[in-house]
Amino acid sequence: MKIIANETSGFQFKRFALLGMSGLGKTFISRSLVKRDNWMHYSVDYEIGKILFKNKHRNLLNGFEVGNLTNLSDFLGKPGSPSMGGIPFSEYLTRQKLHRDAEIKATLHASSLVENSPELSHFVCDTSGSICELVNPSDEDDAILKSLSKNFLIICLEAPDSMYQVLINRFLAKPKPMYYEENFLHSLWQSFKNETPNINDHINPDDFMIYGFKALIKRRKAIFDSISKNWGISLNFENLRVVKSAADLVKAIQFEIASKIKS
User: Fold this and answer.
1) β-strands 15-19, 153-158: how paired?
2) How far apart are CA 3 and CA 22, in angstroms?
3) pTM of the predicted model, to two decimals?
4) Which distant-in-sequence residues (6+ apart) come within 8 Å of 73 by Cβ?
5) pLDDT tens, 211-262?
């Protein structure tokens, strides 16, 4: 960062944007702040669904809430054999692009809320795990990161390698749809097809999801590391386990800021 994190309006007004892989606790922490300390919680995944489902897919709003985002995964789908629950790759690409556009809009809207009410405080923006696929942390003019850093303190949740293996194991047990950057997705799909004897209509969708996730998790970790280095701070998963309140979170942030300043 080019400015000290504790001098940002995001820190001063207690406006935090949580970034990181799905499963590291962004939503859990956010909802804890709501329940215990009455903070405002903005869930980007929930806002994505509201954007995607408002017209043609309005039925998917039924049962869709911050605590149950299953319909968003169902919308994305998985490429592969229809008999195994898959959809054509071309349709998968279409839905990926719709998700991308909705995520950009939903993420920037969080900043708009602050810009329209500069005094807004005690506000946690719970970003989607795929935000790293939309940004370039090396670009000082990246629209999304520049907007977030102007209005929030960006906090990337990191974890030891053992925790990432836990995420992989969870995914193996229950593969779910994911968003991929388009060029990376095309590369993954082609390399997967080169390694399987099955043609598109006979590909097991879960096999591709598992193949993709293993590649994705390494890629995303590197991007989030770069975001925390250039745009904010990082908080370790182990330290976050003790966070029970807003005061605990602020204390952990202050410790990390002090460490970053010293280094």
Assistant:
1) parallel
2) 28
3) 0.92
4) 176, 177
5) 999 899 889 999 999 999 999 999 987 777 778 899 999 999 988 888 777 6
Surface-to-core class of residue 185, CB atoms within 10 Å of its CB (0-12 exposed, 13-18 middle, 19+ buried):
buried
Q: CA end-to-end span of the chain, whole Å? A: 12
* φ, ψ for residue 205, nearest 5 deg: -55, -40
**Domain 5-262: assigned CATH number:** 3.40.50.300
The whole-angstrom separation of Cα 228 and Cα 129 is 14
Q: At what angle do helices 89-116 and 182-195 cross, to 10 degrees?
A: 150
* pLDDT 10s digits, 40-68: 999 999 999 999 999 889 999 999 999 89
For helices 89-116 and 143-151, give the axis angle rounded to 10 degrees.
30
**Angle value at C-alpha 177, between 70 and 86, nearest 5 degrees:** 105
- For the chain, the structural domain boundaries read 5-262
